[in-house]
Amino acid sequence: MEKTLFLLFLLVFLWFSWGKLWPKRGAPLMPASKIITIGNTSLSVEVAVDNEAITRGLSGREKLAEKAGLLFVFPAPGYYPFWMKEMRFPIDIIWIGADKKVVGFSENILPESYPATFAPPSPVQYVVEVNAGWVEERGILVGDILTLSERL
Q1: What is the pLDDT along the chain (152 residues), one digit of tens a residue?
Q2: Residue 10 within a domain
Q3: What is the C-alpha to C-alpha distance for residues 136 and 132, in angstroms, rounded to an integer?
Q4: Could you list the residue range(s) of the whole structural domain that residue 30 is in?
Q5: Do 95 and 131 form a contact (C-beta atoms < 8 A)?
Q6: Is 117 helix (H, G, I), strand (E, B) or coil?
Q7: How far is CA 75 from CA 40, 80, 124, in A?
Q8: Is 16 domain-assigned?
Q9: How many folded domains does the chain comprise?
Q10: Is 8 domain-assigned?
Q11: DSSP E strand stretches across the chain
Q12: In CATH, what number is assigned to the domain containing residue 70?
């Protein structure tokens, strides 16, 4: 009898926990916004860390808020190419090394550039996508430091 009650309790617990353990279909894969600083400029970013979120990036979105971006976090430094597949607005890409220093930019990339790819000038572990013109408007420079407001 005790064994049956325990199994019943376990099944009920798993049933109610299932939705919390596994994301619902169509649920966003990226967490809520985080604040980062590049040089002296802060912005709110979503963080892409899993393969699906990294592959999707900003594809399919109509726009990106003015002071917003998407931060890609890779497990190790590398030459990660980016494309504009299914993009609907131009962006700047900020390439950032494992030491969190900006190593370069790809600016004003148009959606029409697909299937061309864009790669960093040296290995990167972080990449930030922002609206086109953001890098120039904010005066971001090679060597500027990426500061994360909290641990990712």
Answers
A1: 555 443 334 333 333 433 433 333 333 445 568 999 999 999 999 999 889 988 999 999 999 998 899 999 999 999 999 999 999 999 999 999 999 999 999 999 999 999 999 999 999 999 999 999 999 999 999 999 999 877 65
A2: no
A3: 9
A4: 26-148
A5: no
A6: strand
A7: 26, 11, 10
A8: no
A9: 1
A10: no
A11: 34-38, 41-48, 68-78, 82-83, 91-96, 102-109, 117-118, 124-131, 146-148
A12: 2.60.120.1140
Phi, psi (rounded to 5 degrees) for 140 = -70, 135
With beta carbons less than 8 A apart as the criterion, state whether 126 and 70 touch: no
**List of residues 6+ apart from 33 with CB closer than 8 A:** 44, 45, 46, 68
The structure tokens listed for 30 are 């990226």
Please give the model's pTM, rounded to 2 decimal places: 0.78
- Counting Cβ atoms within 10 Å, is residue 119 exposed (0-12), middle (13-18) or buried (19+)? middle
End-to-end CA distance of the chain: 46
- Residue 112's identity, in one-letter code, is E
- Number of C-beta neighbours around residue 58 at 10 A: 20
| Residue 3 belongs to some domain of the structure | no
Residue 63: both structure tokens together? 């726009």
Owner of token pair 């890098």: 135
